[in-house]
Amino acid sequence: MKALSSTKAEIVSPLLQWYDSNARTLPWRENPEPYAVWISEIMLQQTRVEAVIPYFSRWMKALPDLGSLANAPEEEVMKLWEGLGYYSRLRNIHKTAKIVMEKYGGSLPASFEELRSLPGIGEYTAGSVGSIAFQLPVPCVDGNVLRVVTRLTADESDIGAASTKKQLTEWVWEIIPKDRPGDFNQAMMELGAMVCLPNGLPKCEICPVSFFCEARAQSRMTEFPVKGEKPVRRIEKKTVLILLGSAASGITGGIAGGIALRKRTEPGLLSGLWEFPNLSGHHSEEEIRQILVSSGLKLSSLAKLKKAKHIFSHIEWDMIGYLAVVENDTAAEAADDTLTEAAAEAPAQYGSPLPDFHWVGLERLDGQLALPAAFKSYYQVMKHFIEEGVTE
Ligand code: SF4
After folding, report:
1. Residues near ligand 1 with C-beta < 6 Å?
2. Which of 48 and 19 is assigned the larger pLDDT?
3. pLDDT tens across 252-306, in order?
4. Are 213 and 152 spatial neighbours (Cβ–Cβ below 8 Å)?
5. Among the residues of 7-161, which ranges form H helices?
6. Tens digits of per-residue pLDDT, 96-119?
């Protein structure tokens, strides 16, 4: 790792001064108590700051402390997280809340090692909660910080390699000020988010640590961080079925017979969340018609929908969809909602190859069930159809 004649400790003071004058006002910074810091940090690992703000506010209103989170039903917690993705992180949050209630009397432990030992709290989260909420002199190194440090030092190592991350984390660790560790860590992240930008040219002219920056000295700012080749994503083809129950009287004033939904089985991707029934591969309209009819459904109409795509970290879903209105008296009974325990445990209503599903009212879906972002475009089509009677 290269260095300029200045010592790296010299960046601390100007960085903190810059942070004092430029830090964004964010809801979790107003009262950085451990629970709020923890929740915000996990949310910030999912998406952009602007997108997190409404999620965080909604969450803190519904579950203002660790006790309320520990006691909340899983379905409610999932709904609050709906759209953020990486639901295994959410499950770990819930698990950790219960452990903290039992083992630590309802307060997150003020120790890096103990934080690190809790489900879903890795080195980064233990570092952020530890330094911001408990003033522990430990680093929290996210993608922003990695970028800043590789530029400051013109480090050409592959940023995706664990050894690089370890080395850069140690670099940060050595200069964390003991009196303001949380502010220092946040300042590094803020610098990466606001000044040392990832795409295009960073704003070096306003950077408080440019005097130390090796990449700038060499005019090679955009060459860092160095990224190795990304692993190729696996593409999975799917056919998504939006089945609306018309009941005997047809669709009037909404979907009298409910929406077919199924709960994804554990373990696996998006386990425990709700989804539209779907089949592997892309199926033609005629195939879908036969599948539905042979499953015992009386088809009133069938329309092909636009393609949709959803990208996970290692898989890409390449989806086509159909919207079918089916007559179903059973559906009519469940239409005004009620996904009772009995319904949730009911066996498959229709045989293979159509997956098991339940009829669920729209209100229940909107208010209580978590539908992953992967299905959001088909959800929008369904809503439009319910309101306007057409798919486009
Ligand atoms: Fe980033 Fe430029 Fe500051 Fe270097 S001088 S840390 S490249 S913004």
Report:
1. 148, 151-152, 195-196, 202-204, 207, 209-210, 213, 215-216, 221
2. 19
3. 444 566 889 998 876 677 877 899 999 999 999 999 999 998 888 889 899 999 9
4. yes
5. 12-22, 27-30, 34-44, 49-62, 66-71, 74-81, 87-103, 112-116, 123-128, 134, 143-153
6. 999 999 999 999 999 999 999 999
CA-based nearest residue to 215, from 295, 135, 267, 156:
156
What is d(CA 198, CA 148) in angstroms, rounded to the nearest whole number?
9
Catalytic residue (one of 10, 33, 41, 75): 41
Q: How far is the CA of 151 from the centre of ligand 1 (A)?
A: 6
Distances (CA, A) of 366 to 187, 230, 260: 39, 37, 14
Say if residues 276 and 241 touch (Cβ distance below 8 Å): yes
Neighbour count for residue 37 (Cβ, 10 Å): 23
Closest atom of ligand 1 to 208 CA is: 3
Mean pLDDT over 69-89 rounds to 92
Collapsed DSSP state (helix, strand, coil) of residue 195: coil
Position with higher pLDDT, 228 vs 207: 207
pLDDT higher than 70, residue 71: yes
pLDDT at 247: 58
Q: What's the pLDDT at 337?
A: 43
Give the Cβ contact number of residue 276 at 10 Å: 23
Distance 213 CA to ligand 1 centre (A): 6
Distance CA 273, CA 375 (A): 11
| Ligand 1 atom 7, closest CA | 221
Q: Which of 149, 195, 197, 201 to mutate to test the pocket of ligand 1 (most atoms within 8 A of CB)?
A: 195
Mean pLDDT (whole number) for 21-28: 96
Q: How far is residue 94 from each of residues 70, 77, 78, 179, 298, measured CA to CA in Å?
A: 6, 8, 10, 32, 42
- Amino acid residing at 286: E
**Quick check: helix, strand or coil at residue 360?**
strand
